[in-house]
Amino acid sequence: MKKLRKIKKIIDFLKFKIISRYILIIINGNSMEPELTNKSLKIVDKNHFNISKIKRFEIVYFVHQIRKKDKPIMYVKRVIGLPNEWIEIKGNNLYVNDKKINCKYWQKSHFDKNYVWDTNLDDFVVIGDNLNFSTDSRKFGTIKSRNIIGKIL
Predict the structure, then answer these.
(1) Please, what are the domains in the chain?
(2) Which of 67, 74, 92, 138 is the most buried (most CB within 10 A)?
């Protein structure tokens, strides 16, 4: 009987760890197509970035408030710029610190103009894959790491 209680405690602990680490979200909109489609279910790993650093081209789930009077909104976007970088989009090309970086995610869309971000210690640049349907760093600038909830799995 003691062994059974111990096993139950272990199972309860593992369930708690899984529930507290992952959340299930529904993708709302077309900004990340074709990789993530509208109304698809995705898992967010809330602890991923406690274990490893955010990497370029990872897809993140974050909260952002465009203006202070606005309600915060949850977003799913691809990270293209990391802290302490000079990020430029010229034509359809991505440059990081004046070095051209291969980016395969915008092949079917085109930027309407050039963009530049100079990130600080805690700034990230995020862009939706479907440029014509994405509200992202082109509109609201960089995001802070404290606003990133997790990585889309």
Answers:
(1) 23-152 (2.10.109.10)
(2) 138
